[in-house]
């Protein structure tokens, strides 16, 4: 697994003036993808994944900005993306920040699916339209998978944080943390065989694994998400 504290190899100022950093592990992730498929299609596929992850993080940044929460930077790393922002003590406001990222993926899935269907209808009459339909179809599936993956109730995925915040609506903070910890522990343990299954069956590599010890500590009331 990759560390989330890496010195960036590249940085630039992105939309909304937010600094964006590219970590060495992200370059390694790109290298692994391109080693598996060195064709133009492989390059395009990785670009679609990277772009979707980046837009996901911009969704979090937007959720911060509209509520006046400061964003320090976005980091693209081997495990995906991270949006660093000022801690938000209000759970209701934090919910918007957390859900904004997955909602971007859901919106991209819907738009790309509709556009893919439109161009697919024109496919028999145009090779370019057919290729574009296939590209948009891939973009749709990528974002649907990213949405589903991020909504799993395990930390530090968005679903884990959102699950805890929703529990905060009906439970005291410590109790919400314990429940989230128990569910997260089950998910983190199940993650291990799931990683092997995805690799053996579909050739999919997951470069991220949730911490079992962190979730056990949460379940015991010794930590919070």
Order of helices and strands: EEHHEEHHHHH
Poorly predicted spans: none
Query: How far is it from the N-terminal to the C-terminal residue, by CA?
Result: 20 Å
Given the C-alpha coordinates, what overall shape results?
A: globular
Number of helices: 7
What fraction of the residues are assigned to beta strands by DSSP?
5-15%
Class by helix and strand content?
alpha+beta
Biggest sheet character: 4 strands, mixed
Arrangement of strands in the largest sheet = 1-2-3-4
Portion of residues within helices: 55-70%
- Radius of gyration in whole Å, from Cα? 19 Å
- Average the pLDDT over all residues and give the rounded result: 90
How many discrete domains? 2
Membrane topology: Multi-pass membrane protein
InterPro entries: Peptidase_M50 (IPR008915)
Cofactor: Zn(2+)
Transmembrane segments: 26-55, 96-120, 140-167, 179-208
Description of the structure:
Helices cover 64% and strands 9% of the residues. It is an alpha+beta fold. It has two domains: 1-151, no CATH class; 153-225, no CATH class. A four-stranded mixed sheet has the order 1-2-3-4. Helix 3 (91-122) packs antiparallel against helix 4 (127-150), helix 5 (158-168) packs antiparallel against helix 6 (173-202) and helix 6 packs antiparallel against helix 7. The longest helix is centred in the middle third of the chain and has 32 residues, at 91-122. 35% of the residues are buried.
């Amino acid at each position: 697994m990759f560390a989330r504290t890496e010195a960036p190899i590249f940085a630039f100022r992105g939309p909304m003036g937010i600094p964006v950093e590219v970590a060495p592990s992200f370059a390694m992730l790109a290298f692994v993808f391109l080693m598996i498929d060195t064709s133009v299609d492989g390059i395009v596929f990785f670009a679609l994944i990277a772009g979707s992850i980046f837009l996901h993080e911009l969704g979090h940044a937007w959720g911060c900005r509209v509520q006046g929460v400061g964003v320090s930077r976005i980091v693209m790393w081997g495990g995906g993306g991270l949006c660093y922002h000022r801690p938000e003590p209000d759970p209701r406001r934090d919910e918007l920040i957390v859900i904004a990222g997955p909602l971007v993926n859901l919106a991209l899935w819907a738009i790309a699916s509709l556009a893919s269907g439109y161009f697919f209808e024109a496919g028999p009459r145009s090779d370019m339209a057919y290729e574009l339909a296939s590209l948009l179809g891939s973009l749709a599936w990528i974002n649907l998978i990213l949405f589903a993956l991020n909504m799993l109730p395990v930390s530090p995925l968005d679903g884990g944080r959102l699950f805890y915040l929703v529990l905060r609506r009906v439970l005291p903070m410590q109790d919400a943390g314990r429940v989230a910890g128990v569910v997260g522990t089950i998910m983190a343990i199940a993650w291990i065989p799931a990683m092997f299954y995805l690799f053996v069956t579909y050739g999919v590599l997951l470069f991220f694994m949730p911490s079992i010890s962190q979730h056990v500590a949460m379940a015991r009331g010794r930590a919070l998400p």
